[in-house]
Amino acid sequence: MQDIYTGLLRDFADAEGLDPEALCATEEIEIAGLSLALAFDGDETFGDLVYACGLGAVQAERAGAVHRWLLEANHLWAGTAGATLSLQPETGTVLIAGRLDLDGLTAPALGAVLEDFVDVALYWRRVIHEAPLVASENPSGELQVDAFA
Question: Residue 94 sits in a domain of what CATH number?
Answer without folding.
Answer: 3.30.1460.10
